[in-house]
Amino acid sequence: MNKQRVLVARKVFDDVVDHLRKHFDVEANERDEVWSQDELIRRLQGKAGMFIAGGEKIDAALLDACPDLRAVCSMAVGYNNIDVPACTARGVLVSNAPDVLTETTADFGFALMMATARRITEAEHFLRRGEWQRWSVDMFAGADVHGATLGILGMGRIGRAIAQRGALGFGMRVIYHNRSRLAPELEAPLGARWVSQEELLREADHLVIVVPYTPDAHHLIGEAELAQMKRSATLTNVARGGVVDDAALARALRERRIAAAGLDVFEGEPQVHPDLLTVPNVVLTPHIASASIPTRRAMANLAVDNLIAALGVGPQAGRPPTALNPEVLARG
Ligand code: DGY
Prior knowledge:
Elements: E1 5-8, H1 14-21, E2 25-28, H2 37-44, E3 49-52, H3 60-65, E4 71-74, H4 84-89, E5 93-95, H5 102-117, H6 120-128, E6 149-153, H7 157-170, E7 173-177, H8 184-187, E8 193-194, H9 197-203, E9 206-209, H10 223-227, E10 234-237, H11 246-254, E11 260-263, H12 274-278, E12 282-284, H13 293-310, H14 327-330
Parallel strand pairs: 1-2, 1-3, 3-4, 4-5, 6-7, 6-9, 7-8, 9-10, 10-11, 11-12
Helix pairs in contact: 1-13, 5-7
The structure holds (2R)-2,3-dihydroxypropanoic acid.
């Protein structure tokens, strides 16, 4: 029997692709090119499944142009790039990769917040430029992290893991805003208190954004919200570009209306708003919060497990572990 055909849309670990080859006829993006939408559609002809990294846009137009597609499996946890209802309507199974990246992303979110509060990259750039002549009492003096108020916007798995680091490791007071309040047994060990978004912005010394990107979350933090923050506060975004209005943030940073920001995600990335590149009080990283080798491997392996199961082969045939629309398979 001919093997089903699948497309691996970005370069991943060789052994991950080899694992897929045991079950499928695989076309892999060996050169790690970013394919245009037309190229993606062309390569998807006759393919039953697709492994994606997270940036590919899976919308109704692509689905309609690729009638053989039965499964789209992403190695990212965020899936704002996929029109899940459109997939469901066409019987296409979608999966993402939750849990496996929670702790690594929380490590990074916390590190970025600390680098921002303690002005680490600003100080490093100064040193590399050869400008360090003498010690001064206030040279790159920033804000304390320990004992400060940590404000978390979006208290899902990653938000809770960041709260845990702050509360248990750094004695921080944790406040959070989320659509739904955590159960008391989840709040209690963190000493976390639910507050309104206004109170969160007003009270946080260090605001960390981990909310999923949905149309409602577009520019959740803009000019008006930044104006509610303390002048001494920092803002860290490890969620998605678009949650923060980058132009408004750059203005607030330049005018020192907030002290500093740490950004791993950007509107329109890999482009970065030019004004963010010229303000000194921002730490910028290229969407690497989940980028530890073990975690990237775990994310890729989970996407592969989903793809194999979604296309009805392997030990978990018909039961992809982290399907977003499992009802598609129940329909048969
Ligand atoms: C995710 O998994 O959503 C991360 O942002 C990496 O893409």
